[in-house]
Amino acid sequence: MIHFSQVTKRYANGYEALKRVSFTIERGEMAFLTGHSGAGKSTLLKLITLIERSTRGQIIVNNKNLAKLRRSRIPHLRREIGVVFQDHKLLDDRTVFDNVALPLVVAGLGHQDTSRRVRAALDKVGLLGKEKLYPITLSGGEQQRVGIARAVANRPSLLLADEPTGNLDAELSNEIIGLFQHFNQHGVTVLVATHERRHIHRLNKRVLELKNGELIHGGDPQR
Amino acid sequence: MSAYVLRQLQVLVSSLGEFARTPWATILTVGVIGITLALPTLLYILVTNAEQVTSGWHGNAQISLFLNSDTDTERTGAVVARIRDHDKVDQARVITAEQALLEFKQLSGFGRALDMLPDNPLPTSIVVIPHKDAVTPAELQKLVDELTKLPGIDAAQLDMEWVQRFRVILSLASRTIVVLSVLLALAVTFIISNTIRLAVLGRREEIEIIKLIGGTDRFIRRPFLYSGTLQGLLGAIAAVILIVLIVQLLNGPVTVLAKLYDSGFRLIGLTAPEMLGVCAIGGGLGWLASRWSVGRHLAEIQPT
Ligand SMILES: Nc1ncnc2c1ncn2[C@@H]1O[C@H](COP(=O)(O)OP(=O)(O)OP(=O)(O)O)[C@@H](O)[C@H]1O
Ligand SMILES: [Mg+2]
Q1: Contacts of A210 (CB under 8 A, 6+ apart)
Q2: What span, in angstroms and rounded, lies between the C-alpha atoms of B10 and B186?
């Protein structure tokens, strides 16, 4: 599903955020991406959705070689990947329903299908009664769950989450990780970036660990 | 396909809703565009009307040929006969020096003073009415040149000259309108692209998020294109209304004036196809302006 081979990312200011990173995540797998602050977790996720381009190395996502992907195809790549952002990235002037519907509208889905899928996604995250509310009136945990509902609404085959439990209490954060587990059990490949070791120990899943841009654990063996 | 049409309609309705939510900004923009489009259109109407009026005067062209003072009656007769034979000439009439003097006395009111002159200062002349098919200024000029070469003719005068001058002025005005129209079209483009620029920057966050979740540029552009095209279109409609009102306002005095000259002339306003043309130009400029503006700013907005 995701394959990194000797990937290096150097930002415009010359800083190398990732250094020769190689790993593979199989279809249907769930993995945690961990590491200290500034280790390069967000950078790695941004490379997968082509928010950033790698400087060297090869990245293959869903059988697509990202280096060869034309700019005009980027939206289609992103539609196959659900992303949960650390800062939610919800639209405050739209209702919960409209926020979750956005990826479906963007993909050109019909009105009825959209409505059905939005309700299904909200149901899964336990927010079905709040679809007419605006995001600002929701708690942090609820906003995070709206973000998750939006990420899964279009039934992506890959789900990425960047610190989805960032500033939530232990109970809420367990609940959210539970949601990802649930999607994974239904066949979605999941990659969660987090520095909360608690989940990692609790769930006994595959772990990729970054340190100063180098993958020190869980990577493919160096050739 | 029907889902596509539905989506387009939704965007259209939401654009109109956006206008309704900010009525003052919309009225101001549409008003400015309306006035800007009305200006060259009004000048166009004035020129078309002026052309209309002068085209009626073509047939009345008249050439006066003045004879040498030593040309006697017999030779005058011969010249008149040759002129009448010319295939571009409809009629030719001799006005003898005596007739001319008499007419002048009556018209000028200088009767007594002219009696005191020792002899008649006026020459004999021939008034030539050209054929109806010799109407263009060039053809008339050619005829004048040919007639001037006949024996006994001293000088010729084409009474069309001022009409011709007026037509030159009109064609100059037409050209000015073209230049002015281009400039004002640019102005409309700038106005619309600026409102679109503000709209794009105001929705920067939304655009970023839509890009993040897989929205194509085409999808993001669509509402802005609708908004810009609608602004242009509404501006054009405002311009058409403005012009209809102005033509109505002018038609009263113009009709009175025409009556004084025994003419049934009325101002011709915009025809229906011309109105549609103005709307098409307004909408087209709006589309171009928003396309240009969105394109410029969309590339700048990249999610991070
Ligand atoms: N656009 C950028 N330009 C230059 N340097 C950047 C840019 N984005 C990130 N970096 C640097 O790259 C390094 C890795 O950043 P990244 O955001 O990937 O870390 P992270 O592991 O997600 O950290 P955190 O846990 O704090 O979110 C950091 O040192 C950061 O300063
Ligand atoms: Mg990060």
Answers
A1: A18, A21, A33, A34, A35, A39, A40, A41, A44, A216
A2: 30
Domain-located, residue A46: yes
- From chain B, pick out residues whose CB is under 8 angstroms from the CB of A77: 214
Residue A8 placed within a domain: no
Task: Tell me the pLDDT tens digit for each residue of A34-83.
Answer: 999 999 999 999 999 999 999 999 999 999 999 999 989 999 999 999 99
Evaluate whether A193 touches A162 at the Cβ level (below 8 Å). yes
Whether ligand 1 lies within 6 angstroms of the CB of A139 is answered as: no
pLDDT in tens, B144-163: 888 888 888 888 887 766 77
Q: Which domain holds residue A149?
A: 28-53+76-207
Is the minimum CB–CB distance between A72 and chain B shorter than 8 Å? yes
CB contact under 8 A, A49 and B6: no
Q: Answer whether A80's CB lies under 8 Å from B221's CB.
A: no
Cα distance between residue A117 and residue A120, in whole Å: 5
DSSP code for A39 = S
CATH number of the domain encompassing residue A85: 3.40.50.300
Cβ contacts of A85 on chain B, cutoff 8 Å = 212
Q: How far is B291 from chain A (nearest CA, A)?
A: 17
Is the residue at A218 inside a domain?
A: no
What is the value of pTM for the model shown? 0.76
- Strand A30-35 to strand A189-193: parallel, antiparallel, or no bridges (unpaired)? parallel
